[in-house]
Write the structure tokens for this entry.
Amino acid sequence: MLSTAIHNKQPTLGYTKADHPVQSDLIRLMSSLGNLDLSKTARGLDGCGIPVFGIPVKSVALAMAKFADPDILGQSEKEACIQIREACGQNPIMISGTNKINTLIQAETIDKAVVKGGAEGVYTAAINSLGLGVCIKVDDGASRAASVVMLHVLRKLNILNDESVKKIKKVGAKDIRNWAGTLVGEIRVGGGISF
């Protein structure tokens, strides 16, 4: 957002405020990508102090599909999507940092997909090769569960192979252990997922 403000020659001071031009532009963009009006939606602040807004899961998936296959967008939006996708594939550590599940998944998918976990059990993916958008929302807000479901979806879509999933789980999706360190469970997809 800060880079966007600089690029658009907008003030950088207050870029996290709801009335800043960057935030207004973001609302317009997400409204367009998600095919809905976000001007009167529920608002809040995320853990970083950035404005957030309520958006249906279906609309997030649609926005991610357009990000994955931006041919229906205007030329500048299309070019921006492609540039962002390439940057994510080339620099996966910038997604979430070292040894974070978002980063590990992005490093394995490279140019096949862009993935990003969010707050409260939300996980999104733009599957570039399929022009598909995915949005997962775990009702109780458990991010660990959302990442396991995303791994399952990416495996089912052949974006990740078994070796990649095993590698990611080894670092990012830990088994559940009790206070003594004894393995007591795991988080896994319980049943099938239909597409």
The longest helix spans residues 75-90. The chain has two domains: 1-55, 62-173. Strands lie at 43-45, 51-53, 113-117, 122-127, 132-137, 176-177, 183-185.
